[in-house]
C-alpha cells in the first residue's frame, strides 16, 4: 500500500463520486477506478458499495478512512518539519479573517495551533473577503478566511466551516418574541445587508435566500461590516441575516432568532497561495482538518437574544 493509493482513496471517500474525485485529483476516471480496485485487491476487502448513488463506504472503508487520514496527516507534518529544518522558517504567520469568523471559528483553531507551535508568532488582520484575496496576491498575509465565491485559480481553497443563518432583529420588533422567524413575515421591514464592495458574494447569497423565502425588501440598508449592520439593527432601522457566530457581538436591543426557512449554511473557506509556499499556512489548515475529522461534540444552540 503506497501513499498515492491512500490519497486517492481519501479524496474518493470524501467526494463519494468517481467523477468529482478524478477531477480533484487531475486524472481521468478510469485510472482512478483501477487504482481503487488495486487497493481493494491488495487489502482483500471491498472499500466502497458501488450499488448506491452516491457511493458509500463499507465498514472496511470507514476503518481505512480513519487510519488513512491519520497516516497522511503525520506524513504531511513530517514533510513540513523536514522542509523547515532544511529551508529555515521565519516563525511568523499573518492571517486574514472576516469579522464573523474571528468571533467564533478562529479562536479555538488558533489555540490548537499555538499548542502545537508555541514559538510561532501569529498576526491577525480583519479584512473583507475581497481585501484578503488582494492581500494574498501582494504577499501581505499568508492565509485568509473568506466567504465565497473564490474565483482565483492561483489559490488553494478549502471549505473549513459552515454556519447557519439567524435573524437579527430590533428588540421591539413584533417578531422578536417568537421562537423562530420566517422571512415572509418580515415583509415591510427593511433589510440591512453588506455593502457590495465589501462582501459581494455574501450579499448575493442573502438576497437569494430572501427571495426564495418570499421576502421582498422595500428598502435595503448597506453596511461595510457585521458590527455596523448590527448597530443599524439596534437603532431599529431594519433586520439582518447573519451567521450564527454573530451572536457573539453583544449589542443592546438586538435579539437573534433561528431562521425557519430552509437555506444553505454560510460557508467559510481557507485560502492560501499556490505559488508562494508557506508551510505554516499549510500547518494551520492541517490543524483545522484534524479538528474537523475528530468526533463531533454537542452542537451549540442559536443564541435566543441579548
UniProtKB/TrEMBL annotation:
This is Transcriptional regulator, LysR family. Belongs to the LysR transcriptional regulatory family. One of its GO terms (molecular function) is DNA binding. The keyword ATP-binding does not apply. InterPro entries: LysR_HTH_N (IPR000847), LysR_subst-bd (IPR005119), WH-like_DNA-bd_sf (IPR036388), WH_DNA-bd_sf (IPR036390). Keywords: DNA-binding, Transcription, Transcription regulation. Pfam families: HTH_1, LysR_substrate. Residues 1-58 form the HTH lysR-type domain. The keyword Nucleus does not apply. SUPFAM superfamilies: Periplasmic binding protein-like II, Winged helix' DNA-binding domain. GO terms for cellular component: protein-DNA complex. Coiled coil: none annotated.
Amino acid at each position: 500500500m503506497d501513499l498515492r493509493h491512500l490519497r486517492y482513496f481519501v479524496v474518493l471517500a470524501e467526494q463519494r463520486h468517481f467523477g468529482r474525485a478524478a477531477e480533484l485529483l487531475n486524472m481521468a476516471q478510469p485510472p482512478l477506478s483501477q487504482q481503487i480496485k488495486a487497493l481493494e485487491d491488495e487489502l482483500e476487502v471491498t472499500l466502497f458499495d458501488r450499488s448506491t448513488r452516491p457511493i458509500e463506504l463499507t465498514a472496511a472503508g470507514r476503518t481505512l478512512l480513519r487510519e488513512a487520514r491519520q497516516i497522511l496527516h503525520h506524513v504531511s507534518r513530517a514533510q513540513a518539519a523536514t522542509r523547515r529544518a532544511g529551508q529555515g522558517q521565519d516563525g511568523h504567520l499573518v492571517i486574514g479573517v472576516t469579522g464573523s469568523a474571528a468571533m467564533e471559528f478562529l479562536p479555538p483553531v488558533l489555540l490548537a495551533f499555538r499548542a502545537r507551535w508555541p514559538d510561532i508568532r501569529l498576526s491577525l488582520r480583519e479584512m473583507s473577503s475581497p481585501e484578503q484575496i488582494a492581500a494574498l496576491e501582494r504577499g501581505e498575509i499568508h492565509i485568509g478566511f473568506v466567504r465565497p465565491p473564490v474565483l482565483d485559480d492561483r489559490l488553494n481553497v478549502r471549505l473549513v466551516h459552515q454556519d447557519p443563518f439567524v435573524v437579527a432583529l430590533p428588540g421591539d420588533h413584533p417578531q422578536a418574541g417568537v421562537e423562530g422567524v420566517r422571512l415572509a413575515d418580515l415583509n415591510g421591514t427593511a433589510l440591512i445587508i453588506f455593502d457590495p464592495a465589501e462582501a459581494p458574494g455574501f450579499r448575493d447569497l442573502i438576497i437569494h435566500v430572501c427571495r426564495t423565502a418570499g421576502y421582498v425588501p422595500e428598502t435595503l440598508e448597506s453596511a461595510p461590516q457585521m458590527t455596523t449592520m448590527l448597530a443599524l439593527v439596534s437603532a431599529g432601522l431594519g433586520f439582518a441575516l447573519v451567521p450564527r457566530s454573530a451572536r457573539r457581538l453583544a449589542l443592546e436591543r438586538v435579539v437573534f432568532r433561528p431562521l425557519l426557512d430552509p437555506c444553505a449554511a454560510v460557508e467559510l473557506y481557507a485560502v492560501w497561495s499556490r505559488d508562494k509556499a508557506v508551510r505554516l499556512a499549510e500547518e494551520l489548515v492541517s490543524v483545522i482538518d484534524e479538528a474537523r475529522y475528530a468526533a463531533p461534540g454537542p452542537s451549540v444552540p442559536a443564541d435566543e437574544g441579548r
